[in-house]
Design goal:
Length: about 90
């Protein structure tokens, strides 16, 4: 299952997510824009993990004075993607 998400309030312009057919596990994540090295690392770290686990870890993460971050936006994207998979 593929899902594209447009983040808000962060530097990245898009998040592309591939989940297993049942929508429960992250296969791959990629970001457009944002902090390239950090977001590549985040993408590698979340691959192969359950969506629920990653949402729990990344939700609410902030970046500087912002009330969100690319990681928080990824958690929101995963929540949306799994909601559509049901």
């Amino acid at each position: 299952m593929h899902y594209d998400f447009t983040p808000r309030g962060v530097c990245s312009r898009a998040i592309h997510i591939d989940l297993t057919d049942d929508g429960k596990t992250i296969e791959q994540v990629s970001f457009e824009g944002g902090c390239n090295g950090n977001l590549k690392a985040v993408s590698k770290l979340v691959a192969g993990h359950p969506v629920e686990e990653i949402v729990g870890i990344l939700s609410g993460n902030t970046c500087g004075p912002r009330q969100t971050s690319c990681a928080d936006q990824l958690a929101r994207a995963l929540t949306e993607a799994t909601g559509q998979a049901r």
